[in-house]
Amino acid sequence: AETVRNFCKPEWIIRRFARRYGASDRQIEEITEAMLDKDRHSGAFWHVNGGEIHLERNGIEFLSDNLPTWDICVKSHHMTPELQELIKHADSDTLWTPLPPDEIEWREPGPGDRIKLLGTAGSVLVSKVMKDAHLSSRMKRLVKIAVRKSDGEIIAIPGLKRSRESLIDFNRDFMVWEYREKRNS
Known about the structure:
Blueprint: H1 2-7, H2 10-20, H3 25-36, E1 45-48, E2 51-56, E3 59-64, E4 69-78, H4 81-88, E5 94-97, E6 104-107, E7 114-115, E8 124-125, H5 126-132, H6 137-142, E9 145-148, E10 154-157, E11 161-162, E12 175-184
Antiparallel strand pairs: 1-2, 2-3, 4-12, 5-12, 6-9, 7-8, 9-10, 10-11
């Protein structure tokens, strides 16, 4: 009977979740206290066996140390009127740019990284773009950015935003490159 009553309590759920991922008793107490605190903030995390437990806006999340690997599929295209229409209506998961693969570096966002967003003046922090997109900690760890090697300018955050630096001049660029992320588990 005691177990049934405890089953509905948030403390019991938190303890069970944390124990499953190898949290120590001290960590479980810290997590429980943080979760039950009315003024809690997201972003707190605890290292446990095989990953981390993160405090999010809507609860807690386990982030495994074993993240999926990723690579980028690259295709080159000669500019045609049909391709121009495709590019104009392309989703944000595909990056279209005149820059060939040897001029682009793909990496994880770093602290202080800024992007000059298409359609805006100035620049914004990549971390703010991810926060505004309401990405969980797990998804933030999977984000890759495209950086122009010549000057270090961020040209895109695939799936989220493009930079004005990635624009294609349809009158001048006769060869464009298509970059699409391919995820492997």
